[in-house]
Design a protein that fits this description.
mainly alpha, 3 domains, 830 residues, 4 strands, single chain
């Protein structure tokens, strides 16, 4: 694979515009190459050695270039041998601080610039423009990297406070007799031996992970050498033991010292959360004093927390020992997510450095010059090439995580921090082929049996379509939706839409399109096998009964699917099943939970499964009232069934309406209110269409027409303009949007037309449109299937738009709530 493609494939999708524009620079190099070929029609040869000085003098005398002093960043050799001169200029920018502080801090940003010395030559303007763009890319990448590193360093300081609080919390939990820094009934020898073993394990972890060239850390993650001590005297005593232990044992294989900087640690404050008493200024404060300044955040969104928020009841509370495991789990997830940020930043730095190296080598090869060394020296001296904060911070995080969250087991800790990518298994592909083949064979067998027995011409065909067809169409809706979702995943991956991040899947547990196709094909085989078992429509001539066992097959299949979905054992993708169930619970309790994208995305999927919900209602009626024994359908004559026929169709849209109301009050975004009105209009249209289908009459038909037209127009406009971000009149891509992932614009216009047509598929219910060869139930199934297909198309463009919004804001990380709330005002130094 060429480097350009490899470079693009390794990018963080949300940061793609922050990377060096390698492809554009390649285009500039191709223009230089074409110019050289047009002028010389042969490769460039370097100027003879004897003519170099004379040509240089001529260029200087002509006044086209200026005489430059040799830059320390430039490559060695005479000035006449140089192609470019590089320099770094300091640019001071003021950064605002907290509004409570009137002072401001200044940061010096370095601007890198190269001067091309051969611009007087033929075609020199091409190379001059190339270096200007190259400088722009270097400054862009360097600034972005510096800003992101500053962000993670600030997060590291906050994590340090959280770890101090956790360590104090652990001491209190393990030693309940300790009170206000006084160790009562505390076995000092046991604690000392435990501490030494912990530090030794952490040191060994550092030896294995720290390069010999790494510098000492700046204390951002000081918790690696955290010691749980009560006063200065105890601290000094333990430190002497540890220092002696490390002096005797802490040597790397290359002879360098592996001792942790204990003196630095002694004078480093633990955290802003704790107050430093006058008696021990300059020493480490009592760890247990942290607990006096800490409260537990309500990071878990629950119905109770929502109600407390409405009633303005404080959700921060004092710590209790039963909260220890929950706090440890939250901080563990925070460290894992923080470590992933550091890995992405390290990858960003490495890839860009490699890209600059590749593009300069290409330049030297095309122009037969020697500019790469001087320019790459400047790149190496830049913040991107010289900063090692991320590497050192990764080492600190690894050591801290290994010590505090994996019981000093390095292999276990590293496996959690660096989860391996899911391997594509050939057996999944094999089983997909097997099940798809089985589905095809069963479908052909079904068609042949219906044709051979002339089932459609028998008297029982109408009865069968009104009873058994609604039961089995449920599985058809589910399978079709799964197939569309599998196709969505395939195209999201192809066009680098980061759907696992957008949905919030746990890394390494998200389903690929192969897994989704496997599940859908397996369910399709079971459904078609059940249909074949129920094809016999003849009843006993004496008892007039059908075989109850045969009639229970659809119910048994539904029970099997539900049992697998709720199965607590780690089989059949448990993590994904539980994620789905959690989102479904949030949908059912819409106003009581904070609405995430995964929640309202699932609610939108449910709005396209109205007919599936009505099929479930029919299951309850058909089997609950005993109609299955005679294969009769008396449900539609029952008033209770008719009432729930309305309610069931409205439920998914009601969930979505409540989610919009919750977001309106929480985010204060008026667009959520308009979106809620859209779903309310859909609810009205469904009620009117359902009333017309059950009661008929001109009045109901007119009301159904009016409400459905309003809901259809509003929903279609919202889909295209707000959900997809299209129809932007002044965009670079006329009537689309500025950024598109698919290069063929016709696909977007085709999707718009399809969305409009499929949105108005409900017209058949108002116009009484019928097809002679299709039963009414079959027609309803076809229309419901078209809505599912429309939803599948909507899914891709909705997530594409969300992904591009993340790209525009460079959002590549999940925000993980922290468990502790530190009172910083009380914790400041006196």
């Amino acid at each position: 694979m060429k480097f350009g493609k490899e470079f693009a494939s390794q990018m963080v999708p949300e940061w793609q515009y922050a990377y060096m524009d390698y492809n554009y620079l390649k285009i500039l190099l191709k223009e230089i190459k074409r110019f050289k070929q047009r002028t010389n029609n042969k490769p460039l040869v370097s100027t003879p050695v004897g003519l170099k000085r004379k040509l240089t003098f001529y260029r200087a005398f002509s006044g086209l270039i200026q005489r430059h002093i040799k830059s320390p960043n430039s490559a060695g050799g005479d000035i006449e041998d140089q192609v470019i001169l590089v320099r770094a200029m300091q640019q001071q920018q003021q950064s605002s601080v907290d509004s409570s502080d009137s002072s401001s801090s200044s940061h010096h940003h370095v601007h890198y610039q190269s001067n091309f010395l051969m611009s007087a030559e033929a075609g020199g303007e091409y190379e001059l423009f190339y270096f200007r763009r190259l400088d722009d890319e270097l400054n862009k990448v360097n600034k972005f990297y510096r800003d992101k590193v500053d962000e993670v360093l600030k997060e590291a300081v906050e994590l340090n406070k959280q770890m101090d609080a956790l360590i104090a919390f652990r001491i209190k939990a393990e030693n309940p007799n300790i009170d206000d820094g006084v160790f009562q009934n505390f076995d000092r020898n046991v604690e000392m031996s435990r501490l030494v073993s912990d530090i030794a394990a952490s040191t060994a972890a550092l030896n294995a992970s720290t390069p010999s060239r790494a510098k000492s850390t700046k204390g951002y993650m000081g918790v690696i050498e955290e010691v749980e001590l009560s006063n200065r005297n105890d601290a000094e005593g333990y430190m002497d033991v540890i220092e002696e232990f490390l002096l005797n044992n802490g040597e790397n294989s290359d002879g360098t010292s592996a001792i942790i900087d204990i003196n630095e640690h002694k004078t480093t404050s633990s955290t802003v959360c704790e107050e430093r008493p006058d008696s021990i200024k300059g020493s480490r404060p009592t760890p247990l004093q942290v607990l006096n300044r800490v409260k537990l955040n309500n990071t878990l969104e629950t119905p109770c927390s929502t109600i407390k928020g409405i009633l303005n009841i404080s959700m921060n509370r004092k710590l209790s020992l039963k909260d220890l495991k929950k706090v440890e789990g939250q901080l563990k997830r925070t460290f894992i997510e923080f470590y992933q940020k550091l890995r992405l930043l390290k990858s960003y730095s490495f890839l860009n450095l490699l890209a600059f190296s590749k593009i300069m080598k290409k330049y030297d090869k095309i122009t037969s010059r020697s500019a790469a060394k001087a320019y790459l020296n400047m790149v190496d001296d830049s913040y991107l090439g010289s900063s090692d904060e991320v590497t050192r911070l990764m080492e600190r995080v690894e050591a801290t995580f290994i010590k505090h969250f994996s019981n000093s087991n390095r292999r276990k800790g590293i496996n959690i921090l660096r989860p391996k990518a899911k391997r594509e298994r050939h057996r999944i592909t094999f089983f997909i082929g097997l099940l798809v083949g089985g589905t095809t064979a069963l479908l052909l067998a079904l068609i042949l049996i219906i044709h051979a027995r002339h089932i459609l011409n028998k008297k029982g065909s109408t009865q069968y379509m009104e009873t058994m067809f609604p039961l089995y169409s449920l599985f058809g809706f589910v399978v079709l939706h799964m197939v569309m979702y599998g196709m969505n995943i395939y195209f999201w991956r192809r066009y680098r839409v980061n759907h696992p991040f957008i949905f919030g899947f746990k890394q390494g547990t998200e389903l690929g399109y192969r897994e989704v196709f496997l599940l859908s094909s397996g369910l399709a085989v079971l459904a078609f096998a059940s249909v074949l078992a129920n094809l016999d429509m003849e009843m006993d001539l004496i008892t007039k009964d059908f075989k109850a066992l045969t009639e229970l097959i659809p119910l048994g299949l539904v029970c099997l699917v539900l049992a697998i979905t709720f199965c607590p054992f780690d089989i059949i993708y448990r993590s994904s099943r539980f994620f789905l169930l959690r989102c479904a619970l949030h949908c059912i309790s819409s106003p009581l939970y904070k609405v995430t994208l995964a929640d309202f995305f699932l609610a939108d999927q449910l709005t396209s499964q109205v007919q599936a919900f009505r099929s479930l209602e029919f299951y309850i009626c058909y089997y609950g009232w005993g109609d299955y024994k005679l294969r009769t359908n008396n449900c539609k004559d029952n008033d209770v069934y008719k009432t729930f026929f309305y309610i069931v169709a409205v439920i998914p849209f009601w969930f979505r309406f409540l989610q919009c109301i919750r977001r309106l009050f929480e985010e204060k975004d008026p667009m959520q209110g308009y979106n809620g009105l859209k779903y309310f209009s859909i609810i009205l249209s469904i009620v009117m269409r359902t009333a017309y289908s059950l009661n008929k009459g001109l009045v109901w038909q007119v009301l159904a027409w009016i409400t459905s037209a309003i809901a259809g127009i509003v929903s279609t406009y919202w889909d295209i303009v707000f959900d997809w971000g299209l129809l932007q009149r002044n965009s670079k891509n006329r009537w689309l949007r500025d950024k598109l992932l698919i290069s063929h614009k016709s696909i977007y216009f085709g999707a718009i037309i399809l969305d409009v047509l499929l949105r108005f598929a409900w017209l058949q219910t108002v116009l009484n449109f019928e097809v002679s060869f299709l039963h009414r139930e079959a027609m309803i199934t076809v229309v419901a299937s078209l809505e599912i297909i429309r939803r599948g198309i909507w899914n891709f463009f909705r997530l594409e738009n969300e992904h591009l919004n993340n790209v525009g804001k460079y959002r590549a990380f999940k925000s993980v709530p922290l468990p502790f709330n530190c009172d910083e005002d009380e914790g400041e130094d006196e």
